[in-house]
Amino acid sequence: MTGANHSELGEAQFARLVQAYGADPQRWPASEREAAQRLVSSNAATQRLLAEARELDRALASAVPPPVPAALERRLLADFDRAQQRWSLRKLINSGAQIVWPGAPLWQPAAVFAVALTFGIALAILAPLDLRPSEDSSASIFALDAAPDSDVGQDI
Amino acid sequence: MIVDPDAELVARVARGDRAAAQTLMRRHLPKMLGLARRMLGGSVEAEDAVQDAFMRLWTHAERWRPGQAKFETWLYRVTLNKCFDRLRRRPGSPLDAAMEVQDPAPSPESELERAALSRQIEVALRALPDRQRAAIQLCHYQECGNIEAAEILGISVEALESLLSRGRRTLRARLLHLKDT
């Protein structure tokens, strides 16, 4: 009933066609439309089938859908605006990533950054931290304290 | 290569063109909402399903590749899947939802009669199994061809015809009395 281009259609095939698609030839598969219309013009039994199908078509056509609420249109456009804002942010991140690593997909610079960050944190945790001032560092501080005296009297 | 009347608009939406988004929305929203309303019954849930489908369009437009499938086919498929997701999560029978059909605004007597008839048809449609209802919705109300409708539903044309025949048979039995009114 589908696919092949039938030059002739039997009553049984026509019945299956109308039972599925109804009486409007525009809804029939294009490959069978012409043969079906030829059959109807010469066969009283198919005309009865068509009339029955037309009754149901008419009933279905009388179900009128309510109009689209304007509020829904506004909601959809607001969604579009929000999606665009998010998209702009993503585009900004992407272009930043392209400057750092041209031609690479976003995940590559992101992965390098993540590895570098992890390494930095690990280093900060694991490296020994000695906060006691050494003698040398005290000497540097004294040297810095003394430094302004040497600038006295200079025009800056 | 499929000639797609929406391809250029989708490309513009992907570039962030709001006017293109609005045109695309106005072109498809009435049919998508009609599909969702008949699938789900309640208007609020149908609007949510359509909103989800459009959100997918807004966020995925840049991935759209023209020539593979018609955009409209993809959009109906997304909408229908959103409806099926909601139907799967919903407890109770389709008839429960059918009772939520809303009357149009107050109108003259003939309008009321037409509305009553329309409501009976909506109730009969919503009492059908989900896939039969979807098939009838796509072929009768969305004017989809059989190949496109089968593609949207992810089934063969033969399976589509079977769904349509069974659906129409049930509807005829339920709506037979209407021809006498």
Task: Describe, in plain words, how this protein is organized in 3D.
The complex is a heterodimer of chains A (156) and B (181). With 156 residues, chain A is mostly helical. Helices cover 67% and strands 0% of the residues of chain A. Chain A has 6 helices and no strands. The longest helix of chain A is centred in the middle third of the chain and has 31 residues. The N terminus and C terminus of chain A are likely disordered. Chain B has a single domain, classed as Up-down Bundle (Butyryl-CoA Dehydrogenase, subunit A, domain 3), CATH 1.20.140.160. Chain B has 181 residues and is an all-alpha fold. Chains A and B meet through helix 1, helix 3 and helix 4 of A and helix 2, helix 3, helix 6, helix 7 and helix 9 of B.
Q: Helical percent range of chain B?
A: over 70%
Can you name the CATH architecture of chain B?
A: Up-down Bundle
Unreliable sequence segments of chain A: 1-6, 150-156
Gyration radius from CA atoms of chain A, angstroms:
41 Å
CATH third-tier fold name of chain B: Butyryl-CoA Dehydrogenase, subunit A, domain 3
- Describe the sheet with the most strands of chain B: none
Please tell me what the overall shape of chain B is. Answer: globular
Total domains of chain B: 1
Mean pLDDT of chain A: 78
